[in-house]
User: What shape does this take?
Amino acid sequence: MFGRFLIRRVTGPFRRALFLMVVLAIGASLAIKTEAQSRSSDMFEARVSKILDGDTFTLSGESRRIRVWGLDAPEWNHRGGSAATAMLRGLISGKRLSCAVLDIDRYGRLVAQCFLPDGRDIAAEMIRSGAADEYCRYSGGFYGTC
Assistant: This one.
């Protein structure tokens, strides 16, 4: 009898502690989910206004430049740079894009995964064309070329 009383007495506080830990874990997972949802809500649409090089452009109404996420294109003044710039220009010039902002780089550019009106991923198209490479350091192999 005394053993039962002791076990019940000891498990009561442990049950409360366990309950509190479960409540905190649920709260933390909801906070993480809310953060992820707020990041995914950074989706916007706009028309391309200027192509700067093979992986950077501007959109109408957006003061910051857009850096295409997961894409590594040569600079305009390096070998292959003019071809990459021309490819990007042909692909997106004047089109209305849907972009999901994923980060802001050290130059203040919005790093975004952008899609053409038909749903094609700009980076995937540039990689497929051979005009640019996947930026494996940041994409984590998302496009399957790393």
Observations:
- The chain has four helices and seven strands.
- The domain at 43-139 is CATH 2.40.50.90 (OB fold (Dihydrolipoamide Acetyltransferase, E2P)).
- Strands lie at 43-53, 56-59, 66-68, 71-72, 96-104, 110-115, 133-134.
- The longest strand covers residues 43-53.
